[in-house]
């Protein structure tokens, strides 16, 4: 039987209808200003501006990876339980 967390993740995964444009806007609001700030720093030869922009981009990557990790464990567990249930129903395959 699936845990409450596994059910929640599976439900969110199945009902989530995101286009690529949604993902661009979701992360673009973080990436675009950081990229603009980095370009400004390069143009003005300002190492501090470049480092701040790099730090902002790094934080976006860390945020994305932590969100993916948070989703992957319950989803992986739910899929494993599903596979066990299917194998129990079809022992000849």
Structural class: mainly alpha
The succession of helices and strands, N to C, reads: HHH
**For the residues shown, what is the average pLDDT?**
83
Rg estimate, integer Å: 21 Å
Number of domains: 1
Biggest sheet layout: none
Task: Provide a count of the helices.
Answer: 3
For the termini, the CA-CA separation is 22 Å
User: What proportion of the residues form beta strands (DSSP E)?
Assistant: under 5%
Helical fraction equals over 70%
Shape: elongated
The overall strand count is: 0
Note down, in words, how this protein is organized.
With 93 residues, the chain is mostly helical. It has one domain (18-89). The protein has three helices and no strands. The protein has helices at residues 4-15, 20-43, 47-89. The chain is elongated and about 70 Å long. It starts with a helix and ends with a helix. The model has no long low-confidence stretch (mean pLDDT 83).
Question: Topology, please?
Answer:
Layout: H1 4-15, H2 20-43, H3 47-89
Helix pairs in contact: 1-3, 2-3
Give a summary of the structure in a few sentences.
The protein is mostly helical.
Structure characteristics:
93 residues, mainly alpha, 3 helices, elongated
């Amino acid at each position: 039987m699936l845990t409450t967390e596994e059910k929640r993740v599976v439900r969110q995964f199945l009902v989530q209808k995101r286009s690529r444009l949604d993902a661009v806007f979701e992360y673009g609001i973080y990436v675009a200003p950081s990229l603009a700030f980095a370009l400004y720093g390069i143009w003005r030869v300002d190492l501090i501006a470049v480092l701040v922009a790099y730090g902002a981009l790094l934080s976006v990557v860390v945020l994305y990876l932590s969100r993916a990790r948070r989703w992957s464990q319950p989803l992986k567990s739910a899929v494993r339980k599903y596979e066990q249930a299917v194998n129990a129903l079809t022992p000849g395959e």
